[in-house]
Model the fold of this input.
Amino acid sequence: MSDASLSTHGAPAASTPGFRHILYPYAGIRQYVVGVLSYLDQARAGGATVIVAVHEERHRLLREQLPDDGTVAFVDLAALGGNPGRLIPAWQDWIGRRGRDGAVHGVSESAWSGRTAAQLSELRYHEWLLNRAFAQAPAWSLLCPYDTNGQPPGAERTLARYHPLLWNGEASVAGQHYADEPYAFEPFEERHDLYDEMPYALGTLPTLRAYVYGWATVHGMSTQRVRDLVLAASEIASNSVRHGGGRGTLRAWVQDGSLVCEFHDTGVITDPLVGRIRPTASQLGGCGLWFTHQLCDLVEIRSDNHSGTRVRLHMDLRVDAKSRSAGEHQSKTADG
Done:
């Protein structure tokens, strides 16, 4: 693969006026409600368009304290699933639809507890990428509440490195730990136990697709999600053939309740936002990683001149287990 780097030398400074990226560390529900409402009240008083993207329980907490006058738009964060790679284009869409008449103030809170190491890594990367994605955007402000309860030591300070501003509950102040520098990826956890491996090239792409279909089906994935994974795998493998030296290697295993497919080739990706920006209607090519983010529950990329590119696709088996459980419950209910 070669249309992108996860290197960011020369990227626009995150402190560029226009985008105000604010971290709000809080401890407990009361502090959450007081601090977020203060931010929303100031935004509404200034006549800004206000967009809140939080999970349903937080929706209810905030709605109870806000007037029902249409000044705050609540958007469905759950509809995006758990893949952080879908958040930047979602904010672009929300702002495009609602923020045409002036400044936008947003609230975006991701769930940090109960995540796998891979999911947490991608969430942190997303927070860093926001500064690049919106460096040249019209003026808008994004508050990122972060529940510090139960989080490991150093986690808050790590997040603070990606936020130029800090919310103290009443106002934004300069973040003392912010660092505008290239992102430091955690290395992939290497697999030393059982996994399947197969090389692929142009002539063996049909074999790769058949393997992924059969492997995912055996593990109990629903038919639609099997098709999604096969399509995503085909996109990544085809990119390897076109841009990554004409061939690559697939490894597949089960980890943390998910099916994982890793693709490795000798190409190098040079755009940190690859797959994170919605393709334009007239765009030719370069859409494979975008579609992959829409199809998979998590996408991880590591790429450099020394090791080439590795892309990991994750599909959560628990999604299928929940769907089967719900279907069985409905069947029993219908049977009386």
Remarks:
- The first helix runs from residue 29 to 45.
